[in-house]
Design brief:
486 residues, alpha+beta, Immunoglobulin-like, 3 domains, 4-stranded mixed β-sheet, 7 helices, 27% helix, 20% strand, Cupredoxin
């Protein structure tokens, strides 16, 4: 399972006669994207034995003269089998100067005499001139600033595309059409709208723990829910939608960008799972704000889920830092993007943009309970490591004077006779306080030094560590906002 894998290769970047990377090791189905830089290069397939000459039936971009970097010109070749592929630049003596590359070449350990390094050495001895096929593109897709060029009417890209056979894949605006399901690659349009796509250089680790897989599968499900919420909300905010005109165009466009970013985040997580042959969770049937709901319901739902996902990303990063450190940068970069979105949403809700110096870490099991209680009708599968059932729903009403001073709670069953329940206040990472719950009126005081977005849960024991809370959880979690005491 998984989306389309793609690796990016720079062609002649910085004026250097080289492909970067030039030694490519990728599975069948991977798209190798060549990004052209000045001044005039090609990527053309050859045989090992004849390095600087085209092979019959091979791929070729043709000559691509460019003046700027990035040029907006790409050539995509899809790896169709596990046989080694050899390629070169056909311009002048670029091939003989080392501008060559390989795909899935035999390793040095194979003692085949046909390694990447052997090919480089052989190309240096090849007699000039190099050649390319008379027509291009061949065996791949040539794209110029989003326009697919199906023929150059020769083998040189002209200054203008006038008269060339082209096709343009129409972009699919956020909020229309079917949302791509988990494991399906998103069109490039969404990467542009998101401000960037998936990582291109992964630095894959040789192994991947079961704990990391379980965390990422849960993260993928929350991201899928967040994506559905943003996708649906943006559609309602667009012209003709149920909430059209509520927000300025800039805010609507920003929410569309968040949806695109969420799609990229989900695809990134899916690619990691797919690389290690782990399943990608399918979409659940979600409970989203309806057309009769107010836009405030949508913003409140997004604020809660966005905070929840930040908490899970923070918690995951801590737990995986030792055994699976290569995933941590991807997780933290996603948390950063969501934190910026959270600041904008806070201002939309007339709250402080950044109320704390750190994000709130939230154990995955608590996040799972919140999602299942508030946003999921049913799911097609059970996630590893998650409880069989969510904990009790927690309702919270704050009593506000100059700021919130107490909280009224409601949950099924209440406090049993002879037992004590406590409210755990989970604040910016490392902040955890407990207050006793008055069983008669179901109220508890608000800690004096906590403010901003705070997650609260009811537990049957106080003085716990954050990781111990799921073992003593009675109800929750629930997100509350507490004003700055100043």
């Amino acid at each position: 399972m998984g989306g389309i894998r793609r690796i990016e290769v720079d062609v002649g970047k910085g004026g250097r006669l080289e492909f970067v990377p030039s030694k490519i090791m990728e599975p069948v189905g991977t798209v190798v994207r060549f990004n052209f830089d000045p001044k005039n290069h090609s990527v053309t397939e050859s045989s090992f034995d004849n390095p600087c000459q085209p092979i019959e039936g091979g791929f070729s971009s043709g000559f691509i003269p460019t003046q700027s970097s990035p040029s907006g010109v790409t050539f995509d070749y899809t790896i169709v089998d596990d046989k080694p592929k050899w390629f070169y630049c056909g311009q002048g003596t670029h091939c003989q100067s080392g501008m060559v590359g390989s795909i899935n070449a035999p390793t040095v350990e194979s003692n085949s005499g046909r390694t990447h390094e052997d090919f480089v050495a052989k190309a240096q001895q090849a007699p000039p001139p190099s050649k390319v096929p008379p027509n291009a593109p061949l065996g791949g897709t040539l794209t110029v600033n989003g326009t697919i060029v199906t023929s150059l009417n020769g083998n040189v890209l002209p200054d203008k595309l006038d008269g060339l056979p082209t096709t343009t894949a129409p972009p699919i605006p956020i909020g229309t059409g079917d949302l791509p399901p988990p494991g399906i690659e998103a069109p490039d349009y969404y990467a542009e709208k998101a401000g960037g796509g998936k990582p291109t250089h992964w630095n894959w680790a040789p192994s991947f723990s079961d704990e990391a897989a379980a965390y990422l599968q849960f993260h993928s499900r929350i991201e899928d829910l967040l994506l559905h919420l943003l996708w649906d909300g943006h559609r309602k905010l667009e012209a003709g939608g149920a909430w059209a005109g509520v927000y300025p165009a800039a805010i609507v466009k920003t929410i569309g960008a968040w949806a695109a970013q969420s799609l990229i985040h989900r695809a990134t997580t899916g690619e990691i799972l797919a690389h290690y042959n782990r399943s990608i969770p399918a979409s659940c049937k979600y409970i989203l704000p309806s057309v009769t709901s107010s836009v405030n319901d949508f913003i409140a739902a997004f604020s809660a889920l966005n905070n929840l996902q930040i908490g899970v990303l923070t918690d995951m990063s801590v737990h995986l830092a030792k055994a699976d450190p290569f995933v941590v940068p991807f997780l933290l970069s996603q948390a950063g993007a969501k934190s910026r979105a959270g600041a904008v949403v806070s201002m939309i809700r007339n709250h402080l943009a950044a109320s704390a110096p750190r994000e709130i870490g939230l154990p995955a099991k608590l996040a799972w309970s919140y999602v299942m209680n508030h946003f999921v009708d049913h799911c097609p599968d059970k996630l590893a490591g998650m409880p069989d059932q969510p904990w009790k729903v927690l309702e919270a009403t704050l009593k506000v004077e100059e700021r919130a001073v107490s909280v009224q709670l409601k949950y099924e069953g209440g406090v049993p006779d002879g037992k004590a329940h406590y409210v755990a206040w989970i604040g910016p990472y490392g902040s955890l306080e407990f207050t006793e719950l008055d069983e008669e009126n179901m109220t508890s005081i608000v800690p004096g030094k906590m403010y901003g977005d705070i997650w609260i849960v009811v537990v049957d024991k106080d003085d716990l560590q954050l990781a111990e809370i799921p073992d003593h959880l009675v109800a929750g979690p629930q997100l509350v906002w507490i004003d700055d005491p100043e």
